[in-house]
């Protein structure tokens, strides 16, 4: 009982931290011709059909390789998602690797629903996916690929909060840090490929 209360309090604190009323919501979504390298870290909250969970994340996008580590609040990695030119893979906390050609295929295989991993780096940078249908809502939110995307930025224009909403779930990423000039990385593929 105490554990459930503790988890409920932590989830409430994370969700409260996600609300940033002082930061303006992005209303202009230019087309993404390319996305520069970046590293980021923060917290994420996922709500699926009324049930929520949260975690921390470390995110690296370099040389068109995208790696997202999902961590417990104590820093233990519970999973990794990586996308490169060869496809997408996920690694669970036991080291089991799951492969697919696309993020959509992997999401359906592991989760049973689609999570737009292949577009996250674009939306986090305040852009929309090029050559794809989109709509801007009257309040400036972006609708693309059945997702409604809300983004707030810090004073430097970097992502502070990214909220993705679909009919089945919502994902909120709160960025504690974002570095748009990371040191060059030699990595040309997901590290889990060996």
From TrEMBL:
Main localisation: membrane
Signal peptide range: 1-19
Gene Ontology, cellular component aspect: cell outer membrane
Annotated localization: Cell outer membrane
Membrane topology (UniProt): Lipid-anchor
Keywords of the record: Cell outer membrane, Chaperone, Lipoprotein, Membrane, Palmitate, Protein transport, Signal, Transport
Gene Ontology annotations of biological process type: protein transport
Family: Belongs to the LolB family.
Assembly mode: Monomer.
Protein name (record): Outer-membrane lipoprotein LolB
Species annotation: Neisseria iguanae
């Amino acid at each position: 009982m105490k554990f459930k209360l503790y988890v409920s309090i932590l989830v409430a604190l994370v969700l409260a931290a996600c609300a940033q009323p002082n930061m303006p919501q992005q209303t202009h979504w230019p087309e993404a011709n390319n996305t520069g390298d970046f590293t980021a870290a923060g917290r994420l909250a996922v709500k699926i059909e009324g049930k929520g969970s949260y975690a921390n994340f470390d995110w690296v996008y370099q040389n068109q390789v995208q790696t997202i580590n999902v961590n417990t609040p104590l820093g233990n990695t519970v999973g990794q998602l990586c996308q490169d030119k060869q496809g997408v893979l996920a690694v669970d906390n036991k080291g089991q690797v799951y492969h697919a050609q696309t993020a959509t295929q992997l999401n359906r295989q592991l989760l049973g629903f689609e999570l737009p991993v292949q577009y996250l780096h674009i939306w986090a940078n305040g852009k929309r996916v090029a050559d794809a249908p989109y709509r801007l809502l009257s309040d400036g939110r972006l609708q693309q690929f059945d997702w409604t995307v809300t983004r707030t930025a810090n004073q430097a224009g970097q992502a502070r909060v990214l909220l993705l909403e679909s009919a089945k779930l919502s994902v909120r990423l709160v960025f504690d840090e974002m570095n748009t000039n990371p040191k060059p990385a030699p990595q040309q593929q997901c590290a889990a490929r060996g």
